[in-house]
Amino acid sequence: MKNVKLDGDRVYLRSITYEDTPLMVKWRNQENVNRYFFYRGVFDKESHERWMREKVETGKVVQFIVCMKEGDRPVGCTYIRDVDYDNKKAEYGVFLGETDARGRGIGKEILNLTVDYAFKELKLHRIYARVREDNYPSLYSFLHCGFEKEAVLKDSVFCDGSFLNVVILGKLNPYEEKE
C-alpha cells in the first residue's frame, strides 16, 4: 500500500491504514451512513480487515481517510474502487462518518481531490458513481463537480421494503491529451 496525502483547503486525505479499523466499523454501522450503501449488512473488524487485504493491498481499491485540517481529526472516507487499469476506469465513493462534518460544504473538495488523484496519478480515463435516486445531497455534489448523469437503473436495489432507482453518473479525465 502506497502512503499518500492529498492537501485541500479545509481537508486533507491520507491513505487508510489498519489502525483506522475502529473508526470504519463505527462509521459504517451508523444508520445515517449505512442507509445509502448498497451493501447494508453488519460491518465488523473482520470484514474491514478482509477488505484491506483483498481490495486495498491488491490495488483494486485506493482508499483515503478524510481529515479536517481544523482540529486535525478524521471525519470520513473516500475511495476509488474496482479499479480497472485495462479499461482505465473505476467507481468513486465517499461518506462522512462524523455528523458535525456534514453540511459544511466539504464534499466538493473531497470529491475533487480524490477524482483528480484518480485522473492524474492513476491515469484513469473515466470515473463513475452509483447513487440512490433519493440521495439528493450526493447527486447535487456530483453534478456540481462536473459529473454527468448517464443512466437511471429502474428498481435496481431493494431497500427498506421497496425498490429504488440507482443513478449512474460519470466523468471523463479532463487532463488527458487528446490524440
Structure, described:
The chain is an alpha+beta fold and 179 residues long. The protein has a domain at 5-125: Aminopeptidase (3-Layer(aba) Sandwich), CATH 3.40.630. It contains five helices and eight strands; from the N terminus they run ββαααβββαβαββ. An eight-stranded mixed β-sheet has the order 1-2-3-4-5-6-8-7, covered by helices on one side. The longest helix is centred in the middle third of the chain and has 14 residues, at 107-120. The mean pLDDT is 91.
Q: Which properties best describe this structure?
A:
single chain, 179 residues, alpha+beta, Aminopeptidase, 8-stranded mixed beta sheet, 5 helices
Question: How does the SSE layout of this entry go?
Answer:
Elements: E1 5-7, E2 11-15, H1 21-28, H2 31-34, H3 45-56, E3 62-68, E4 73-84, E5 89-96, H4 107-120, E6 126-132, H5 136-144, E7 148-159, E8 162-172
Parallel strand pairs: 5-6
Antiparallel strand pairs: 1-2, 2-3, 3-4, 4-5, 6-8, 7-8
With helices defined by DSSP (H or I, 4 residues minimum), what is the helix count? 5
Instruction: Give Rg in angstroms.
Output: 16 Å
CATH architecture of the domain at 5-125: 3-Layer(aba) Sandwich
Q: Give the helices and strands as they follow along the chain.
A: EEHHHEEEHEHEE
Low-pLDDT windows of residues:
none
Q: Write out the strand line-up for the largest beta sheet, numbering strands in chain order.
A: 1-2-3-4-5-6-8-7
Largest sheet: 8 strands, mixed
State the CATH class of the domain at 5-125: Alpha Beta
What general outline do the C-alpha atoms trace? globular
